[in-house]
Amino acid sequence: MLSLITWAPLAGALIILMLPKEKVQTIQTAAFLAAAISLAASLAMIASFDRGTAAMQFVERWIWIPSLNVQYVLGVDGLSSPLVLLTAFMSVIALVGSLGIKERVKEYFFWFLVLESGMLGVFAALDLVLFYVFWELTLVPMYFLIGVWGGPKKEFAAIKFFLYTLSGSVFMLLSILAVYFKSLPHTFDMLELMKTQSAWDPRFQILVFLGFYFGMAIKIPAFPFHTWLPLAHVEAPTPISVILAAVLLKMGVYGLMRIAYGITPLGFAWFLPALITIAVINIVYGALCAMAQTDMKKMVAYSSVNHMGYCLLGIAGMSATGFSGAVLQMVNHGIITGALFLLVGVVYDRAHTRDISAFGGLAVKLPVYSGLMAMTCFASLGLPGLAGFISEFMCFLGAFPAWKWQTTVSVLGIIATAAFFLRMLQKVFLGAFNEKWAGMQDMTVRELVCVVPLALVTVWFGVYPKWPLDLINATIVHMLGK
Amino acid sequence: MTLAHYLTVAALLFLIGLFGVLTRRNVIGILMSIELMFNAANVNLAAFDRFLHPEGVAGTTLALLIITVAAAEVVVGLALLMAIHRNLGTAYVEDFNLLKG
Amino acid sequence: MIEHAYLLPLIAFFASLVMLFAGKEDPRSPLPWLGIGAMTACLTIAVSIFWSAAFGGGVLPYERNWRWFSLAASIGGKSFIVDMSVGTLIDGPAAVTLVVVTLVSLMVQIYSVVYMHGDTRFKRYFAFVSFFTAAMLGLVVSSSLLVTFACWELMGLSSYLLIGFWFEREGPCEAQKKAFMTTKLGDSGLYLALLLIYAKVGSFQLSQIQQFFDNGFMPATVATVIAVGILVGAAGKSAQAPLFIWLPDAMEGPTPGSALIHAATMVAAGILLVSKTYFVFLASPSAMEAAGWMGLITAFLAASMALVSFDIKRVLAFSTVSQLGFMMCALGVGGFTSGLFHLTTHAFFKALLFLGAGSVIHAVHTNDLRRMGGLSKKMPLTFLTMLIAVLAISGVPGLSGYYSKDLILADVWNHDHAMFWILLFTALMTAFYMFRLFFLAFWGDDRDHEKFSHAHESPVLITGPLVILAVFSALAGAGLDHDGLVSKLLAKPTISVMPGATAAAVAVPVDGAKAETAGHEARGESSGRGERHESHLPPWLHMTAITLVLCSITLSFFMYRGPTYALADAVKANLAPICTLLERRWYFDDFFYGLVALADQAAALAFWIDANVVDRVFVDGWGLLMLIFARISDAFDNIFVDSAVDGVGSLGNDLGVGLRSLVKEGQVQEYLMYAAISFSLAATLILTR
After folding, report:
1. ipTM of the complex in this document
2. CA of A253, closest CA in chain C: separation in Å?
C-alpha cells in the first residue's frame, strides 16, 4: 500500500518522460492520474488505518543492501499518516494549479512528480538511509522547479535553497552514520534505534541531536536558518510555493519529532530551553518581519516562519497536547498557507504585481476572490471555527505549563499576525476601488477547484477537529507516555 | 576429428578475416571480414565446449552471445557507414580521415 | 425547550449561511425575511426558556454536553486522551440575556429592512447580523470556556464585518481594523487566562472549573492572574478603559448594526463573560477591586467625553462605554445582580436610542447635532420613544434604568463611599449629556432649514420596533424588579471557603451575610432560592440622588433648549483646556496610535535585521566560509596534486606525439595494422617465454 502511494508518482514521471513533449494534454492527464492514484491509495490507507494503536501500520520490509544492513522499510503511524495524506492531497491541488504552466510542460510535470515521490517517501520511510535518500530526492526537483519556472531572481533563489538545505543535510548524514556505528548490531532501522537508544550516554546523544537538528532546522525553517525561505517562496512559481509551504517545511518538524526526539531523547531534552527560545523568536520575530513586507507573497512566507514557530512551541512543551497540536498545526498550516499562496498567485496572474499598495477596493470587483482571501487570512490568524485556531491553541496549551513566560510573550505574535493580515486585507480589498484594475476578472473555475476544497477542509477541521485528532492521538500518547 | 582440426580451421578463418580487414578498401568488405573473425571465435568456442566440457553449456551460450553482438555490431557499423556515405559520398576507407587528431 | 437551547445559535447561524450563499445580491431580495423568521423562532425558544425559569418549575442551571473531540494530554509524565465537550449551560443570567439578545436582534433586523433598503449588499448585511447574533447566542449558552472563547472571537469577526460594511470609504475600514485589533489585544489576556485555567484545572467546562474553585484547589495568586486576564479580555470587548477607543469609531457601520453592537451583542459579551466566570473573581478580592475601579474610571471618562461631542452616534457610543463602566463597576464591588440587571435594561434603551438616532439620521441625512433641532414637530413618534429612552438612561424614577442604576449605586455605596460619589457624579453627567442630545435634536426650532424641511417621520417598519423597544425600556425595570424576580434569576454565585487555606487567600464574598450559609452549595442551588437583594441606599441619599438628576436635566434644558447655545459656548470658552482634553478623548487614541507606530518601527527593524544581519551571517557567512575553504583546497590542489597529475599527463603526451609521427594520420586500416602487428608481437613474446 505504502509502496504504491510512494512510487505511483515516480512511475507517472517515467511515463511522462516517454511522452512526446507536444502532447501537453496527455502529459497533464498522466500527471493527474499518477497523483490521483497516490491520493486514492492514501485515502484508502487512512480508511483502514487503526486509530486505536500506536504501532506502525502498513509496514513493508525488504532487504535492500544486506552488507550494510540497509533495509527498505515503510510504515506509518499517527504521526506520519496525516502528513502522507496531506502531501498526496496538496500535490493534486498544486497540480490543478500547475495547469497554468505553459512552457516546458513535460519537464515541469516530470520534476513535480519526482518531487511528490520524494516527499511521500520521507514521511513513510522507517530506515534512516531510505529516509535520507528520499530527503535528498526532494532537493533536486525543487532546484529545477524554482530555477527554471521561477521569477526574476530564480537562479539565485534556487542555488541558495539547494546549497543551504544540502549543507544542513550533511550534518544529518553525519548523525545517521554516528548512530549506525554506535548501535549493536549496526542498523539503520529507526524502530530498532528507538528501542536501543536508552543505553547511549547523554554526551553522545547531544552531539547526534545537534547534527539532526541542523539538518531539520534549516528545513523548518527555524531562526536563524530561515532566510532562504522568503526568497525561495517569492521566486518559485505559485504551485511550487504551495508545495514548499505545505509539505516541504513539514519535513523538518516531522524529522524533529520522529528522529531527533525518537532516537536522541536526552539530546532533545537538553536542547529544550534553546528550542523554546527559538520558537518564541520564530513567532514574534516572524510576525514582525511579515508586518514590514510590501510584497504579499513575502508576507505570507514570513507568516510561515511565524506559524512553524507554533509547531516548535508545541514540541518544546514536551506534552502530549503540544505534540499533537504540532502535528495538527502542520496539517492545518499546509492547507491554509497553501490556499494563501494559491490566492496570491491568482492576483499575480492578473496584475503581474504583488505589491500590497498597488491595489485597493478589489472586494467590489472580485467578491468571490475577496471572500475566499478574507476567510483564509482569518484562518491563518487563528480565528476560531477555522482550522488554524485549534492547533495553534493546542500548541500553546502544551507549552504553557512548562514555559509560562515564553508562551506569554508568544501571544504577542498572535496580535502581530492579526495586524499584518488585516492591513493587507484593508489595502488590497477595501477602500476606494483602484480604477487601474477595472478589467480584472473574478476567479476562474480552475482556480476555484484549487481553493474551494482547501477552504472546505479549513472549515471542517476548524469546527470538528475530531477526525484528524483521533488519527494522531494514540501515537502521541504512546510517544510521550513513556 | 580432434580438437586440433577445429582450431586450425578457426585460425585460418581468423587470418583470412584479419587479412580482409587490413586490405579491403570498401567498408562493407571490412565489415564482412570482421564477421569472419567473429565466426572464427565461434568455431573455437563450440569446439572447446564439445571437447573440453561436453556436460556444460557455457561455451555454446557464449557463442550465442557473440552471434547477437555481431548482429548488433553490424547494424551499428552499417548505420555509421550510411551516415558517412551521405556526408562524404564515398565508401572507401582511404578517403576517410575523420579520426585525424 | 431548555434542552434544545443549542438550537438558538444554530438556527441563527444557518439562517446567516443561507442568506450569504443563496440567491443573488439584489436590493429587493426577500431573503432578509428568512433571517427575521429565524430570529422570531429563536425569540420564541428564548422566551419559553425564560418563562420556565422565571415562573415555571424549570431548574437552573441546566447543563447538557456532547463530545466534541478528544485530545492527548499529559500530566506528570503520563499521557492519556481526554474528551473536549461542547454543550449548553443555561443559568439565570443566560435565560435573561437570551431574551434580550434575540429580541433586540429581531427588532434590529425588522428595522433594517427599511433602513438598508436599496443598498447594493442588502442580503449580505442581514447575513452578517444573523451571524453576529448567532455568535452572541453561542457565547451565552455555551457550557465550555473554549466554545465561549470561540464565539467571542467570532463576534470580533462579525463586528469587523459589520463596522466595515461600507468598506469603499476610508473611515469604516480604519474603524473596523481598529475594532478588531483593539479587541484582539484584549483577547490575548483572555487567551492567557484560558491557558492558565487549563494548565491548572485540565478542563474548559465551566461547571468543572467552578467545582475546582469551590473545593479551594486554586491558589489565590493564580486566581488573580486568571481574573486579570479575563478582565483584560472583557475590557477589550466591553470597551473599558483603556481599550474603549474602538467603540466610538465603530459607529462608522450601519446604524442598526451599531444598535446591535452596543445593546445586545459585542459589548454585552465582556460583562457576560465576567459574570460567567464570576467565581474566579470571588476567589480574588484584588481582581474584584481592579474590576470595580476599571469600571468606575471608564464610566467617568466616557461620560466626560460625551459632554462635548456633537455627533449624535458618537454621544451614544460614549454613553454606552459609560454605562458599561457602571456594570463593570457593579460587578467589581460585588453587585452581580445589579450589574447584570443594568445590562438587561441598558440593552433595551440603548437599542432604542440607536434605532431612534438611526431614524433621525435617515430623515435628515446628517449625524451632526448642530444641524438638527425642532424635529419633534416632524417626527412625533421618534420623539416620544426617544424621550422614554433618554428618561430611562438618565435614571428617572419609574423607568427601567432607574431600577438597575439604583441597585448599582446602592451596591457601590455599601462597598466604598468615595466610589459612590464619583459614580453619582457620572450618573449626573449621563442625565446631562443625554438630555443635551435630546434637546439639540428635537427641541426648539430648526437650525438647518434645508435639512429640517426634508425631514419626515419614518415608515412603520422603523417606528414599530421603536415602539416595542420603548415599551420594554419603560417597563422592563419594574417588571423584573417585581417580586424579587431579578434576585432570583440573577442571583449572585457563591464559592465556599477554602479548607485549610490562609485567610488572605480566602475569597470572602463581598456581602458577608451569605458567606456562611453558602457553604458547599453548588451554584444552582443558591440561584434557585429567589431571595431578595438586600442592599439599598439610605432614604436621604436616595432622594438626594433623584433630585440631583432632575437638576442636571434642568440645567441641560436651560443650556441647550434654544436654537443657539450661548451659555454652553461661554462655559466651553472658560474651560478650554479641559474641553480640548475631552475632545481629544483624554489622548487615549494618540497613545494607541503611538503604540501602533512603535510596532511598525519594530517590524521595520526586525526586517532590517533579517535582511542585513541574519541573512548575512547565516547564509552569506556560511557561504563565505565554504568559499575560503574551497580556495584553500583549490590552492593545495593546484600546487601539489595537480602538478603530479600534469607530470604523468605530459609524459604520456610526449610519447604520443613521438609515436604519431610514425603513421599517416587518419587511416583506420593503418591503425589496425599497427594494432595487429603489436598484438602478434606481444602474443609471440608471451607464448615463447
Report:
1. 0.92
2. 19
